[in-house]
Write a structure and sequence with these properties.
Layout (H helix, E strand, L loop, with lengths): L7 E4 L1 H5 L9 H14 L3 E6 L12 H7 L7 E5 L3 H9 L4 E7 L2 H8 L3 H17 L4 E6 L12 H14 L3 E6 L6 H11 L8 E5 L6 H11 L3 E4 L19 H10 L8 H15 L6 H10 L1
Parallel strand pairs: 1-2, 1-8, 2-3, 3-4, 4-5, 5-6, 6-7, 7-8
Helix pairs in contact: 2-3, 2-11, 6-7, 7-8, 8-9, 10-11
The chain binds 3-hydroxy-3-methylglutaryl-coenzyme A and magnesium ion (MG).
């Protein structure tokens, strides 16, 4: 069994997590969370998104957040940008990477970004061209890679096709999203087998939501397959506003505990990550979803 020696964790809590928390978080509190995460050693932090505030009010203050972060040079502060309007807003506040987001499901694409898969790819092209001019890397998301809340099963071949399109457009990394958390390890392996024929493994990330409690098992299957970039959200924040019932992303603390147990390096300070998770959970007035976080908190209380 060949597991990677190092895993890059992409911390998506401030974006994917907070976009689906009912409570609006102030600019100052988001900035404090992002700074704590940077201090814990996360090298890539998805810090906001430049989407319609009517669709996702939780992200409406992303511009101010980007402006107010006391930045660390080694940290990539990234943002979601669905169209040129979003891209220009992200560039104006000095986002270090942008992400475009498509789907392997037609229905989800319509519900999430109000256009077909084909139209979305066409919309992304000017973003790719502009990002090239600005020398900004672009991350490409594919949602619904293991199932869709509206269509059910999604074929691995369709996922591979969309992922390949994003790669050919110039995305530096493709993140494969189990948006509703329905996947199981065997499905993950089948999907990665199809996608890795079109996209090199070192350009793939996995992005699991934990709705059915399968995220860690799915991550383990992905590691065994050779994937070494994992998206996760501190405290297991969030979900997806266009995927009813989807729970949060897999909790970063749980992923770190798994990776530490496998002797896989991450360069992240576990205790500082725990503290950041407690900070945001206390602000939201809820218990962290992460079992690891709960267990450690019980020990210090
Ligand atoms: P639309 O309505 O089709 O766009 O929305 P439009 O161009 O017709 O514009 C309509 C209005 O939106 C206009 O305002 C625009 O100015 C405004 P109005 O004239 O009505 O006042 N608008 C914007 N405002 C701010 N920033 C922008 C922007 N663009 C248009 N960039 C759009 C299309 C994509 C914008 C819309 O559908 C939208 O914002 N959707 C939100 C999608 C979203 O954020 N989803 C959650 C993130 S994806 C996710 O979580 C999945 C992921 O985690 C992976 C996984 O788990 O699978 C990545
Ligand atoms: Mg997500």
């Amino acid at each position: 069994m060949h597991l990677p020696k190092f895993v890059k964790i992409v911390e998506v809590g401030p974006r994917d997590g907070l976009q689906n928390e009912a409570q609006l978080i102030s600019v100052a509190d988001k900035v404090a969370l992002i700074e704590q995460l940077a201090d814990a050693g996360f090298a890539e932090i998805e810090s906001g998104s430049f989407v319609s505030p009517k669709w996702v009010p939780q992200m409406a203050n992303s511009g101010e957040v980007f402006e107010q972060i006391n930045r660390q040079a080694k940290v990539c502060y990234s943002a979601l940008t669905p169209n040129m309007q979003g891209f220009e807003a992200a560039v104006s506040v000095n986002a270090k990477q942008v992400a475009i987001f498509g789907a392997a499901s037609e229905s989800f694409s319509q519900k999430n970004i109000n256009c077909s898969i084909e139209e979305s790819l066409a919309r992304f092209k000017p973003i790719m061209a502009a990002a090239k001019k600005h020398n900004l890397p672009v991350r490409g998301y594919v949602s619904c890679v293991l199932g869709c809340p509206y269509e059910g099963d999604i074929s691995a071949e369709k996922v591979a096709e969309v992922a390949e399109q994003l790669l050919l457009m110039g995305c530096a990394e493709i993140s494969l999203g189990d948006t509703v958390g329905v996947g199981t390890p065997e499905k993950v392996t089948k999907m990665l087998t199809a996608v890795s024929k079109k996209v090199p493994l070192n350009k793939l990330a996995v992005h699991f939501h934990d709705t059915y409690g399968q995220a860690l098992a799915n991550i383990y299957a992905s590691l065994q397959f050779g994937v070494s970039t994992i998206d996760s959200a501190i405290a297991g924040l969030g979900g997806c506003p266009y995927a009813k019932g989807a729970s949060g992303n897999v909790a970063t603390e749980d992923v770190l505990y798994l990776l530490n147990g496998l002797n896989i390096q991450t360069n992240i300070n576990f205790n500082k990550a725990l503290t950041a998770g407690w900070f945001i959970s206390d602000l939201l007035g809820k218990k962290p979803v992460s079992k690891v976080s709960q267990a450690f908190r019980a020990q210090v209380q």
